[in-house]
Design a protein that fits this description.
The structure holds two protein chains of two kinds. By secondary structure, chain A is mainly alpha-helical. Chain A has one domain. Chain A is built from 17 helices and no strands. Chain B is 50% helix and 11% strand. Chain B has helices spanning 24-36, 51-57, 64-89, 102-132, 159-169, and strands spanning 16-21, 43-45, 148-153, 173-176. In chain B, α1 (24-36) runs antiparallel to α5 and α3 (64-89) runs antiparallel to α4 (102-132). The chains are: A mainly alpha, B alpha+beta. At the A-B interface, α3, α7, α8, α9 and α17 of A face α1, β2, α2, α3 and α4 of B.
């Protein structure tokens, strides 16, 4: 720890060879070029995203008008597609913070090329997730009852409930990751400001907040970035742990496990990197930044996927083992029904997509083939949505067998699910067009400055 | 540069010399030469943080860390105080736990530590940059691209020697600002 906090941050020693061929001016030029007129494919994607969002908006309006009866809840299952999708989107966010903060502290230079995109993904995924508790509570107009504010009956929230912990965890996570993204953007927006003209110059001048890259600004900025990364690192690990405690602190068979926090965190990072791959593989083609985001970066992302996928494989096995070894009939029944009960298709989708498909990444050929990586990333997204679905379906079989029952998702469930992808995609696409999706100043930090005298320098 | 600030907020330009460098070693030479002759009030621009410039300017560690610490302590104190007080204000027995159940309060204690520490870190960067900033120093858009800039605030009659010194160090462009 002393090494991290006591010495000023140094540029990474081993920058990947492929970025070294560029000059500082090339980096600015190429990244600013991504902000010019986009292709027709971009508009098609944006049209699809906005359309899906409108479907979600319509469904939400109907939910407000008619109530949660529209969604396919049936006793005893009152957490269904909405909470599944909530956990799914919170999880997506985690890969972004892992790459931007944790790998920053570990001095992994390869993160530089991809971290801006993943950080934006984090913010938009948490924005999406934060909608779901509100959609799910039924009386959406009184969601603020979750906050500790002085009300007329002097009642306060129940601070011993994990659901209230979650309110604090998610809102802190959203605030801190937004700050981290915006803070990292300031010098890059200033670089764009100095390259464009007309109304765009006006816009970026405002957004750059007077940044000029002076020695005083960099001195404080650089230090603060380190502390923000150091604060975001335990935060990201805590957030999905708290989400897992929404389940684990209850006594529902299948939920009441001490393994839940690390199991959820590994799953979150796994699903998040899956989403990073799904977004970045087409994006780098669309924005023509193939010379900045290389196979090398995808190879590293795939290795992270393999690591977290293997942790998940272990966790799945351990869950079944503990269920058997506990000797608890209810626990055993719950897990037997996951594999062979009425929802068997969910259980097997989860195990095949997450535990087995991720093992394909042991092969270098698959890791460096972007088509296969893209297909695998889709499997990961589907598998991780089903993981949360399977966990929540533990509700179908609690302690009273005569009360068992299955939910019947309706158009209102799927409409909101589709809308959430639209809402997320819309923001991500607009961001990629408006702001530098590759971090200009951090790439520049990896390229040595030209020298008049040969040799020398600190490295 | 068209900073769309209202006129009363726009800083008055400060007279001085603005030099632009392509090479990092030229820039550090110039900074060292200027500082050894007593010109310590320099504004150095770069497109990215560079430790050679930090070393030449002999910068200490930023005091931002103090604000991070203050924020963290404030956050954790406020979180526990809030939860303990609110539980005592309307005592409700939940789940057989004590009214003041410290372990249950740790999560929100942690979250508010991170929240307040992060926010105070950001505000301190804004505040410290404003305080330490020389307002009205000349700027060139290439400083955010690939050039290093050095601005020396100096009266017109002394500008000649400074310009000479910067050219000798290897500046590619020197102008009176």
């Amino acid at each position: 720890m002393t090494a991290i906090t006591a010495s000023p941050i140094r540029a990474p020693e081993a920058a990947p060879v492929n970025v070294m061929t560029q000059t500082h001016a090339d980096v600015t030029r190429d990244v600013v070029a991504t902000l010019t007129t986009p292709s027709r494919g971009y508009y098609l994607l944006l049209f699809g995203a906005v359309g899906s969002f409108l479907v979600g908006l319509f469904t939400f309006t109907m939910l407000l008008k008619e109530g949660l009866g529209l969604a396919g809840y049936s006793p005893p299952v009152f957490w269904s597609v909405y909470i599944t999708t909530f956990v799914f989107w919170v999880g997506i966010g985690h890969a972004g913070t892992l790459i931007s903060a944790i790998l920053f502290l570990f001095r992994s230079p390869w993160r530089t090329a991809v971290y801006r995109a993943t950080e934006a993904m984090t913010v938009f995924a948490v924005m999406t997730a934060a909608l779901f508790p509100i959609i799910h509570i039924g009386r959406q107009w009184i969601f603020y009852w979750l906050l500790p504010y002085p009300n007329q009956r002097y009642l306060w929230p129940n601070f011993k409930s994990p659901l209230v912990w979650d309110v604090f965890a998610i809102s802190t996570y959203f605030t801190v990751s937004t700050c981290f993204l915006v803070f990292g953007l300031i010098p890059d927006v200033a670089a764009v400001r100095d390259k464009v003209s007309g109304w765009r110059k006006m816009l970026y001048s405002q957004l750059a907040l007077g940044w000029r890259g002076t020695d005083v600004q960099w001195r404080h900025y650089h230090r603060a970035y380190l502390y923000l990364a150091a604060l975001a690192t335990p935060l990201v690990l805590s957030v999905h742990s708290v989400v897992s405690w929404d389940f684990a602190t209850s006594v529902v068979p299948g939920w009441h496990g001490t393994i839940f926090a690390p199991y959820f965190v590994a799953g979150a990072i796994y699903s998040g990197i899956g989403m990073v791959l799904t977004l970045l593989i087409p994006l780098r083609k669309a924005l023509k930044i193939e010379h900045m985001i290389h196979d090398y970066h995808f190879d590293n992302l795939a290795k992270l996927t393999l690591l977290t996928g293997t942790i998940l494989f272990y966790a799945y096995g351990m869950e079944y083992f503990v269920a058997w070894y506990s000797g608890n009939t209810f626990e055993q029944t719950s897990f037997w029904r996951r594999a062979f009960g009425p929802q068997w298709w969910g259980g097997w989708t989860m195990i095949i997509c997450n535990a087995f498909v991720s093992q394909l990444l042991w092969f270098r050929k698959i890791r460096t083939n972007l088509t296969s990586l893209f297909v695998i990333s889709i499997f990961i997204n589907i598998g991780m949505w089903f993981e949360r679905w399977v966990i929540i379906m533990s509700l179908t079989n609690d302690y009273i067998p005569w009360a068992w029952g299955n939910p019947n998702p309706t158009w209102a469930d799927w409409g909101i699910l589709l809308g959430s992808f639209g809402w997320f995609g819309m923001y991500f696409l607009l961001f990629a067009r408006t702001f530098p999706i590759v971090a200009i100043q951090e790439i520049k930090e990896m390229i040595p400055m030209p020298r008049r005298r040969a040799g020398g320098g600190h490295h | 540069m068209p900073l769309p600030l209202p006129p009363f907020l726009r800083p008055k330009p400060v007279p001085g010399v603005l030099a632009s460098f392509e090479h990092i070693d030229s820039a550090t030479d110039a900074i060292k030469a200027l500082r050894s002759r007593g010109y310590r009030d320099l504004t150095v621009y770069s497109s990215h943080p560079n430790h050679e410039l930090d070393d030449a300017l002999d910068q200490g560690v930023s005091p931002v860390r103090l604000f991070t610490l203050i924020g963290g302590i404030t956050g954790v104190t406020a979180a526990f105080a809030m939860q303990i007080w609110m539980n005592l204000d309307w005592p409700l027995l939940v789940g057989g736990k004590p009214i003041v159940a410290i372990p249950a309060f740790v999560v929100i204690g942690f979250e508010l530590t991170v929240l307040v520490a992060s926010l105070l870190t950001l505000f301190s960067v804004a505040g410290l940059s404003l305080l330490g900033h020389r307002r009205g120093a000349a700027y060139d858009p290439r400083f955010s691209d690939d050039r290093i800039g050095i601005f020396v605030p100096v009266r017109q009659d002394k500008a000649g020697t400074i310009e000479q010194m910067l050219r000798e160090a290897g500046a590619v462009e020197v102008r009176n600002a």
